[in-house]
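Q: Here's a chain of 245 amino acids. Please give me its 3D structure as tokens.
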Amino acid sequence: MVNNYKIIVHYDGTDYSGWQIQAPGTPTVQGELTRALKIIAKKKIPVTGSSRTDAGVHSTGLTANFHLRIRIEADSLRRALNSLISGDIRVVECEIVDKSFNARFSAKEKVYVYRIFHGEVCSPFTYRCAAHIPYPLDLKKMKKAVKYFRGEKNFSSFTSDEPQKKRTREISKFKMKVKGEEIIFTIQGRSFLRYMVRNMVGTIIDVGRGKIEHKEIPAIFAAKDRRRAGRTAPARGLTLAKVIY
């Protein structure tokens, strides 16, 4: 009997070259899980992830699934995996699901969180999971900029993805919250292009710095030119918070 296991994975992506397996010797989250499953199942087990997070990006909600022919209780498998993988990756949930479930194609929406610390001194415990921007930012203008990214649009100006890929995406939610010395962006949508979230946030940061006027953003969208938008925000500020099924 083949069981389909669904897991939710938390990880600090600082020391990894992203989720997806790459060349031998390159540390990736998918690679760590595949290595551990090979020890458990005595053969290589393909692992499907809900997202391909980039190098340095974190997760508190990436979902993955894989099929095993051996019978093992979900809680026992979770404990076994955590005993075999690095401590900066944790399988926090594990369950047996219907065989039709696919972590990538069954996903309805994904929620990303981007954190900025804009105080003068950033604690080392914050530094790994937030972009440190110590210079002044116009928070009111940044909040005004957020609204331009909501809805269905062509995001050509905000991605480095391959040219032949369809660039239209829909952002169902985009919020900015200021809490003390921290700025938190929450972005929700069905799918995202490469570097899309970081390029949107980077553009909003440039609005806060006075390099771009928030009213220019519709023209940036219309240009369909990556050079017109702001910089790419650092990877360490980005976390895949949740995948909705």
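Q: Can you summarize the key feature?
A: The radius of gyration is 19 Å.
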